[in-house]
Design a protein that fits this description.
By secondary structure, the protein is an alpha+beta fold. It is 31% helix and 26% strand. It has 14 helices and 23 strands. It has helices at 22-35, 48-59, 86-89, 97-106, 125-133, 165-175, 191-202, 234-247, 262-269, 309-317, 337-342, 372-384, 395-398, 404-410; strands at 2-8, 15-17, 38-42, 63-68, 71-75, 108-112, 137-141, 144-148, 157-159, 181-185, 206-208, 214-218, 227-229, 251-254, 273-277, 281-286, 295-297, 321-326, 347-350, 353-358, 366-368, 387-392, 414-419. Strands 21-22-1-23 form a four-stranded mixed sheet. The longest helix is centred in the N-terminal third of the chain and has 14 residues, at 22-35. The chain is globular, with a radius of gyration of 21 Å. The termini are close together.
Length: 424
C-alpha cells in the first residue's frame, strides 16, 4: 500500500499539462464494444479507471494494444460474450456503459451493478427507462443488469425525469445502431457527452444535438473504427486552478478548453483570482493578497460542477470570512468535511449546505481520501497546511488523476508517494 506525503506550505510556479478527460475516456472505451471494429484512442489518461476498463474489455475478448503511454489500439471484433466480469465492473461506476453498448451490438447484456465512489443514492432507473423505451426487457436481479431485446434495439423517444449524465450516455450507446431516429429529451449537456457523440460520429454514427438538452440519434448498423483524440479533463484543470489560487501562486495550465472552465473561472473570479485565457491555456494568478468569500451552488453542466465541490472548499478555508457551498447533485458529497476538520477547518454542514468560515491556516494531519475528488481536496489542503500531511487510501485519487504527484512535484510542491506497511 502507498500513501501521499506533502510538506507544506507550497508555492507553485511554471506550467502543467492537463491529461485526457476521465469521464470521456471511460465512455469512449466502452463505446468501442458497439463499434465492433478496431479503434485507436489517443490522450487516454494513465489512471486506474482506464486500466480497469481496458482489462474488462480484454476479459470479454477484445484485443488491446498499448501504442504509447496515452494511446491504445482497441479491437472489439473478437468479443462474443455479453457477460462482463462482475469482480471488475463492481469497482467502477462507468462500467454500466457496457450495458448500452452490448444491447446495441448483441441485443442482450448481463452486467454486474456498478461501483465507484459512494455519494449516497445514485439509482439507474433512468437507464432502465431508456432501455425499455427502445424495446428491451430489463431485470435488476442478484446484482446484475440483465437485459435483452428481440430483433435489435428500436428507435424511440426518451424523456428523462431528471438530468442524468450516465443515463444520457447509455441511451446514446443503446440507440446508435438501431433503425430510425431516437430522440433524447432533458439530456445532460456535459462536454464528455459531446466527446462521446463526436467519437461515434467519427465511426459512422449520425448524432446531433449533443451539448444541448435534446439529442437525436439516427441509427446506423454499419459503424467502423477510427482514430480519435479525447478532450482534456476540465476537473483536473479546475483542481490545478484551485491549487494555484489557494497557495497564492501563478501557474500556467496547458492543454485545456477554456469554454469548459467558464463556470469555474466566472465564479472563482469573484474571489479576486485572475484568469488569462489563451487558445488552449489558462494563466491563474492573484490580483490581490486578500481574497473575498463567495457562495457556490453546484448544478449540472454548464453550472458549477459537483466534482469541484471538495477542492473549492479548501480554497474557501483560506479566505477570511464566511462562504457557502450548496450541493444539489449528490446527497453525500460532504463526507470530506470530517477530514478537513482534522486539519483545523471550520465547516458546518446542514441540509446540503456547507458554511465555511475561513482565514485560519490549515494544520498538517493524517487524513484519508474518502472518494476521488475528496482525495484531490486533501492534496490541496496539504499544499497550504503547515507541516507534513499524510494521505491514505490514495487509490481513490489514482482513479481519476494522471500522475498528480509527479505533476505537482514538477511545479514546486514537496510531495511524494511512500510505502506503508499493511497489517491486515
Amino acid at each position: 500500500m502507498e500513501k501521499i506525503v506533502i510538506n507544506g506550505p507550497s508555492i507553485l510556479n511554471g506550467s502543467v499539462k492537463i491529461s485526457g478527460m476521465k469521464n470521456a475516456a471511460v465512455a469512449v472505451v466502452f463505446a468501442t464494444i458497439a463499434v465492433n471494429d478496431e479503434c485507436i484512442i489517443d490522450n487516454l489518461p494513465n489512471i486506474s479507471d482506464i486500466n480497469l476498463a481496458l482489462k474488462i474489455l480484454e476479459k470479454m475478448g477484445a484485443v488491446v494494444e498499448k501504442i504509447d503511454e496515452n494511446k491504445y489500439k482497441i479491437d472489439t471484433r473478437p468479443i462474443s460474450t455479453i457477460m462482463a466480469p462482475d469482480e471488475d465492473v463492481g469497482k467502477m461506476r462507468a462500467s454500466y456503459y457496457i450495458a448500452g453498448a452490448s444491447l446495441a451490438r448483441f441485443g442482450v447484456c448481463k452486467v454486474g451493478l456498478p461501483g465507484g465512489c459512494d455519494f449516497g443514492s445514485r439509482p439507474i432507473d433512468q437507464h432502465v427507462k431508456a432501455f425499455e423505451a427502445m424495446g428491451a426487457k430489463v431485470k435488476i436481479d442478484e446484482g446484475y443488469i440483465d437485459a435483452s431485446v428481440v430483433g435489435g434495439m428500436k428507435a424511440a423517444n426518451v424523456y428523462f425525469d431528471c438530468v442524468t449524465v450516465g443515463g444520457t450516455i447509455n441511451a446514446i450507446l443503446a440507440s446508435v445502431r438501431s433503425e430510425g431516429v431516437t430522440v433524447i429529451d432533458n439530456a445532460a449537456r456535459e462536454p464528455h457527452i459531446v466527446d462521446l457523440a463526436n467519437f461515434l460520429n467519427f465511426c459512422g454514427a449520425d448524432i446531433t444535438g449533443a451539448g444541448t438538452d435534446t439529442i437525436k440519434i439516427k441509427g446506423n448498423k454499419q459503424l467502423h473504427g477510427c482514430e480519435y483524440t479525447l478532450i482534456p479533463d476540465m476537473i483536473e484543470a479546475g483542481t490545478f486552478m484551485i491549487a494555484a489560487a489557494a497557495t497564492g501562486s501563478e501557474l500556467m495550465i496547458e492543454n485545456v478548453i477554456p469554454k469548459h472552465l467558464e463556470s469555474m473561472t466566472s465564479k472563482l473570479s469573484e474571489t479576486g483570482i485572475v484568469f488569462e485565457e489563451g487558445d488552449e491555456s489558462l494563466l491563474v494568478k492573484r490580483k490581490t493578497t486578500e481574497l473575498r468569500p463567495i457562495n457556490i451552488k453546484t448544478l449540472p453542466y454548464p453550472g458549477f460542477p459537483t466534482d469541484m465541490n471538495p477542492q473549492t472548499a479548501v480554497l474557501l478555508c483560506c479566505i477570511n470570512g464566511s462562504s457557502r457551498i450548496n450541493e444539489t447533485i449528490f446527497n453525500d458529497r460532504f463526507r470530506y468535511v470530517n477530514e478537513l476538520k482534522r486539519m483545523g477547518a471550520n465547516i458546518d454542514v446542514d441540509n446540503g449546505i456547507a458554511t465555511i468560515v475561513g482565514g485560519q491556516r490549515l494544520r498538517a494531519a493524517n487524513v484519508r481520501a474518502v472518494d476521488l475528488r475528496a482525495g484531490a481536496a486533501m492534496i490541496l489542503a496539504g499544499l497550504v497546511a503547515e507541516g507534513s500531511t499524510s494521505i491514505e487510501d490514495i487509490f481513490y485519487i489514482e482513479r481519476g488523476y494522471d500522475n498528480i504527484v509527479e505533476k505537482l512535484s514538477s511545479i514546486g510542491a514537496s510531495i511524494k508517494k511512500v510505502q506503508i506497511q499493511d497489517f491486515s
